[in-house]
Design a protein that fits this description.
By secondary structure, this protein is α/β, with parallel strands linked by helices. The protein has a domain at about 10-155 and about 175-210 and about 265-275: Rossmann fold. The chain is about 40% helix and about 20% strand. Helix 2 runs parallel beside helix 3, helix 6 crosses helix 9 and helix 8 (about 220-225) crosses helix 9 (about 240-255).
Length: about 280
């Protein structure tokens, strides 16, 4: 959830955003549904070892521990102390044994982690400035024939980031992450290939959530959007009015003939394998 360029400002921003979101993160139902999809495709066996990167509140991590059993090993790593506090509390309440580490997931060498049968990274790749280098780095922690599971949000289907990405240059603001490289399933497939991994599967996930808005909801939706710490920079006093005007205009343009703006939350899910010769 940070950059390979050791950008301390970026790290601090991401850490603060997710620590602020930690108490309500699990309230979004699609996060748990996505975690279950990860575990389904991980095909974990008793005794497997799992490294869950950007583990957040432990949604994937906890399910992984339950699947690998007492003979397995599960480590969760995240940059946000607040998210890890929630994960540790939930893990303790369930009586599970999971090691959680607060660390930059793009620079793991100092942790002496060893190798893993499965490495996962849910809902974080788009936050990285250099996703290819990150995947190459993570692959080093896979055993031969070990598997990496990651996803990228299909941003064009999610209204707020899609609109803010478009209007950002007009108000001198940006989201702080770059999803422009994701054009299709092939984008993620090529990333795996360039990292030297063998692609097992890349596919669009199920639609985790569908939300319908009325076209007149644009101003209210903008206010809700900039209240979110992920998008707060667009609500700064020096750009707020211009950003709101442009946002509402773009929002109206997304309405169908019935005056409804529809949002679908879905991802491209990717599964790749480290060849035994690597």
């Amino acid at each position: 959830m940070s950059t390979l360029t050791a950008d301390s400002d970026s790290n601090a921003t991401i850490k603060a955003i997710y620590t602020e979101r930690s108490s309500t993160y699990d309230a979004s139902s699609f996060h748990l549904r996505q975690a279950k999809e990860y575990i389904h495709h991980a095909n974990l066996k008793p005794g497997d070892s799992v490294l869950d990167l950007a583990c957040g509140t432990g949604l994937v991590t906890i399910l992984a521990r339950q699947h690998v059993g007492p003979a397995g090993r599960v480590i969760g790593i995240d940059i946000s102390s607040g998210m890890l506090d929630v994960a540790r509390r939930k893990t303790s309440e369930l009586g599970l044994d999971i090691e959680y580490l607060e660390h930059d997931i793009t620079d793991l060498d100092a942790l002496s982690l060893g190798e893993f049968d499965v490495v996962t990274c849910a809902s974080a790749l788009l936050l990285l400035q250099e996703p290819l280098r990150a995947i190459e780095h993570w692959a080093a922690f896979l055993v031969p024939n070990g598997r990496l599971l990651i996803d990228v949000m299909i941003e064009r289907n999610v209204i707020a980031p899609a609109i803010l990405t478009k209007i950002g240059p007009l108000v001198g603001r940006s989201l702080g992450w770059n999803g422009a490289w994701v054009e299709s399933e092939e984008s993620l497939r090529q990333l795996f290939t360039d990292a030297g991994l063998t692609v097992e599967e890349v596919y669009p996930s199920e639609v985790y959530e569908t939300r319908d808005y009325q076209v007149e909801d644009g101003p209210k939706f903008f206010e809700k959007t900039v209240a979110n710490p992920m998008f707060r920079v667009f609500g700064a006093p020096d750009v707020r009015e211009k950003a709101k005007e442009l946002f509402v205009e773009e929002f109206k343009g997304r309405a169908g003939p019935d005056g409804v703006v529809r949002e679908e939350v879905k991802f491209y899910m990717g599964i790749a394998r480290k060849d035994s010769k690597q």
